Amino acid sequence: MSEEYRQMWTDLGLDLEAHDALLEALGKGYQDIYLSQENRPQGMQYFDFVMSEVHGLRVKELIDAQKQGRKVIGSFCVFVPEELILAIDGISVGLCTGAEFGFAEAEKVLPRNTCALIKSAFGFGMTKVCPYMEASDMIVGENTCDGKKKSYEVFKDVVKDLYVMDIPQMKSDSGKELLRSEYLKFKEKLEQLSGRRITVDDLRKGIETVNAKRRAVHRISELRNADPVPISGMDALLINQVYFYDDPQRFTESVNKIADELEERIKEKKGVSAEKTPRILISGCPMAVPNWKLPWIIETNNAAIVGEESCVGERGTRFLTDSEGSTVDDLMDNIVDRYFNIDCAIFTPNQSRTEHILEMYDKYRADGVIHYSLQFCQPYQIESGPVESTLEDKGIPVMRIETDYSQEDAGQLRTRVEAFVERLKG
Amino acid sequence: MRSAGIDVGSRTVKLAVVENGKAVISRKSENSFNPLEICGEMLDGIDYDVLTATGYGRHLLGDRLSCDIISEIKAFAIGARELLPSCRTIVDIGGQDIKAISLDENGRVIKFEMNDKCSAGTGRSLEIMAMALGSRLDDFDSLALTAEKTEKISSLCTVFAESEVISLVSRGAKREDVALGIHQAIVNRLMGMLRRINVREDVLFAGGVAYNKCIRDLLQKSSGADLHVPDDPQIIGALGCAIYGMKD
Questions:
Q1: Cα separation of A272 and A235, whole Å?
Q2: Nearest residue of B to residue A410 by CA position?
Q3: Is residue B10 within 8 Å of residue B97, measured between CB atoms?
Q4: Which of B56, B73, B74 is the closest to A411 by Cβ?
Q5: pTM
Q6: Which residue of B has its CA nearest to A400?
Q7: Cα B207 versus chain centre, distance
Q8: CB-based contact (8 Å) between B211 and chain A?
Q9: B100-123 burial string, b = 16+ CB within 10 Å, else e?
Q10: pLDDT at B70
Q11: Which listed residue, B31, B49, B192, B211, has the most CB atoms within 10 A of its CB?
Q12: A8 has pLDDT over 70
C-alpha cells in the first residue's frame, strides 16, 4: 500500500523511515500469524483487507471526513463513550498500543517498569509512526490505572490536544455521580470542538449505531459455543480489535455477514479445528493490534480459544446502551448506566468480573481458563490471584501468565501452554 | 518394543531407552549451539521403535525426525511416577528452567508453576554465581556447606544478584557465607513456587541442580518434606518420554 499514501503520511508528519519498518514488521507478522491459519471463514477476507490498509485507506477516510468538517477522536479505553463521539458526527478511533515499537524513546520519559501497553502508546507517539494519533483532532486519556493516569501527565507533551477524563474506582453512588459528571463534561467538550449541540436524535442515533456494532459481535461470540468452533480465537480477536477503528456501519455489516457464514458452518459441522479440541477462555488485560503472541501460541498448540474476557473482547462489548428516553438527559443517564457496569480491574471490589468469567466459562463450554496479565499491570496481576482461587475452588483448570510484547519468552510460554493443554486433554 | 525418549535441555541432552518396561540405556551429553548435531550423535547406533522428545529443543527435533513431542511438565510427571509411584510433587531445577509440579493420586498434573523469561534461581544462575566467587560449579555446594552464617542475598535476579555478590565480597564478607546466601536465595525462589502449588508428599527432586547437596538440605528444611532424589536426577524427563512412547 506504500506508494499511494506516502504524501498523506508526510503531511501527517510521520517519520517515513520508521513507519516503513513498522509496516514491514506488521505485514510479515500478519502473514505468518493470520494468513497461515487454515479453514478460515470467507468473510475474514474483509478483515484481511482492513489490516492490509490499516495505515492506508482507513486513514485516508479519516482525513477525507475531516475535510468535510467531521472530527476524529482518538482514545485508549472502553470507558470513552463512542455514542457521544458519533452524536457530534465524529469518528472514534482506538490508538496504537499493541507493539514493542519505540520503547527506547518511551523509556526516556517513562520508567522501564511501565506496562507494555503504556510504553507502546508513548513509543508510537514519540517516534511518529501512528497515523491515527497524528490525525486525531483530540485524544482522550482516562484515569483508569495509576500507570495511565500518571503517564498522561507526560503524554500531554507528546501529542496535541490531550483531554483527560476522570474515572471512578468504586461502584458506589458517588462513583456513579463522578462518571456522570465526567461524561457531561466530555459531551460539552465534544460540542465545543465540533461546534454543534447534541440533540436527542443525534444521541439516539449514536447509541443505535454502537449497539448494532455490539450486537453483531455478540452474534459471533454466541456462535463460538459450537463444537467444532466455527472461527478461530485469533480471528475473533482480530474482529474485536478492528471494532475500535473501522467505520461502524461497514464493520457491523461485515461482522453480520461472518455470523451468517458461521451459522452455515455450524450446520455443516465445519470448524477451524477438529471436534473435541481443548477449549480455552482467555481472561485479563486487553490485547491491542498487533499483540497476537499468546493467542497464536495457544492456537498453534492444538487448542481453540472460545472467548476473551477482555476490554478487546466481551468486557468491552457485552452491554448495550438503552436507547429509550425522550431527552438528552435521559439518554446520558442510559450511557452512564451502561458504562458503569464495565468490570475493569481498576474497580474495587470487582467481584462481578469473576462472575462474568464463570458465566463465559459455562456459556462457551470452555475446558480451562488462561489468565493473561501484562507485566507491571498491577490491577490485573493482583486480581489474578483471587480469580484463580475462585475458579480452582470450582474445579476449573486455570493458568496465570504474565508477559509483555517482546518475543523473548515465547519458548517458555509455549512450554507452559503445551503443558496446560495436555492437562486439559487429561 | 523399544521406546526412546530424549530431553533436549538448555545445558544437557538426556536420552533414555525403555524395553519391556525396563530402562536399558541412559545417556547424557552437554548441549551446544547445535542441539540437532548433539541429538544425532546421541541417537547414533541406538535401536528404537518409537521416539518421543521433550525439552526446550523438542520442536526443533520434532521438525526433523519422526517423533512425538510432549511438554517437559508431562514428561517429568510420567518419569517421576515411574521412579517413585507415590510421587505427588516434583521440583525440578534445570539449566534454564525451574518447575514445581503437583500431581493427583493417579499421577495427573493438577497444577504447575514455571519461571518465565527470568533465569533467577536456575542452574545457570548458580553457575554464574559460582564463577563470581571463583568456585567450580561442582565444588560450589561444598563451599557453601562450610559456611558459619548466611550472607543474605536479597535480589533474585541473576544480574543483580551477581553485583550484590561482588559488593558483599568487596565489603569483606566470607566467600563461603556468600555462597550459602546464594543457595538460600535459590531455595527461597523455589519455595515461592512450591507454596503456590501446595507441597504434598512424596516429593521428588529432579534436574541437574538436585546433585547440589546444599540446595537439597536447604530445600528439605524449608519445605519440611522428605526429598527423594533419584540416582540420576537429570534423566527424569527423558525417561518420562520413553515411558510415554510405550503407551501405544
A1: 10
A2: B117
A3: yes
A4: B56
A5: 0.91
A6: B113
A7: 2
A8: no
A9: bbbbeeeeebbbbbbbebbbbbbb
A10: 94
A11: B31
A12: yes
